[in-house]
Specification:
The structure is a single chain. By secondary structure, the protein is an alpha+beta fold. It has three domains: 2-147, Rossmann fold (3-Layer(aba) Sandwich), CATH 3.40.50; 153-196, no CATH class; 198-243. The chain contains six helices and seven strands. It has helices at 53-65, 82-94, 116-121, 137-147, 201-209, 217-237; strands spanning 2-7, 15-20, 32-36, 73-79, 104-109, 155-162, 188-195. The strands form three sheets. Strands 3-4-5 form a three-stranded mixed beta sheet, with helices on both faces. It has a two-stranded antiparallel ribbon with strand order 1-2. The chain has a two-stranded antiparallel sheet with strand order 6-7. Helix 5 crosses helix 6 (217-237). The longest helix has 21 residues, at 217-237. The relative contact order is 0.10. It comes from Blyttiomyces helicus.
Length: 243
């Protein structure tokens, strides 16, 4: 594992540590937990590949539980969209991390598909140019902006879906061995979800988009555009006309 460490030029008390676990691939890296230190305690930031998520979660929990130093805040950043954010949140909960700890702060870095969560938060739809930058200037800016960002509450819902007696639950995208098209082996699922904008039209378009997800951001935009266009056409055709 290659490790690079540096201190923020804008805040020398903050130590950032980047761990590149796959230096020869272009696999997206997540999650991106960042820790803000108190008076004299150094707090690392670690960039971890998905396969190293257990290590990353343990680092966060250990940092919150440490008695060596006083931790004023723990910033957990997910490099991706709302799906990545929810995945990180559920991993933290599964590991017994108290996500309601007043020191916990969550944020996103827009490396995802649509990045609508990042845009709602005010961080934009993408990271312009090289996220590192010359002498790590861009990374310094990304870290500093989020450390200084305003806090706001985000609604997280736990949704329970129970199928009717003769019904079944069909999942999109990946095949789950617990479900089949002929009738569900499991009739109940419980999922957590975030509600930061809407669950109406956005949910409809998203459901049409999911089965055709691509790795190209441009193709993702096209996939979102087509269902949206069809929905708009349907809405316009139903408008009342003046005689």
């Amino acid at each position: 594992m290659n490790v690079e460490s540096f201190r923020l030029r804008s805040d020398r008390s903050t130590l950032v540590r980047i761990c590149n676990v796959r230096p020869h691939t272009h696999t997206p890296l997540s999650p991106h937990p960042t820790y803000k230190k108190s008076a004299n305690a150094q707090c690392p930031s670690q960039l971890l590949d998905e396969e190293e998520r257990t290590t990353g979660i343990k680092v966060i929990r250990a940092f919150l539980d440490t008695t060596i130093a006083t931790i004023d805040a723990c910033h957990v950043w997910s490099a991706g969209g709302d799906g990545t954010f929810m995945w990180v949140l559920e991993e933290l909960l599964a590991a017994g991390v108290d996500v309601n700890d007043p020191r916990m702060n969550f944020c996103t870095v827009p490396f995802g598909t649509g990045n609508d969560l990042s845009q709602v938060m005010g961080w934009g739809g993408s990271v312009p140019g090289d996220p590192m930058g010359g002498k790590l200037a861009n990374l310094d800016r990304i870290v500093s902006e989020r450390l200084e960002g305003q806090k706001a509450y985000l609604d997280i819902w736990e949704i329970e879906i129970v199928a009717n007696e003769n019904g079944f639950i069909k999942k999109a995208v990946k095949v789950d061995p617990n479900f089949d098209l002929g009738g569900a082996k499991e009739k109940r699922i419980v999922r957590k979800m975030s509600n930061y904008s809407s669950i109406g039209v956005q949910g409809f378009v998203g459901a049409r988009f999911e089965p055709h997800r691509h790795t190209s951001r441009f193709m993702n935009a096209l996939e979102f555009t087509d269902p949206g266009r069809k929905l708009m056409q349907s809405s316009v055709s139903n408008w009342p006309t003046r005689e």
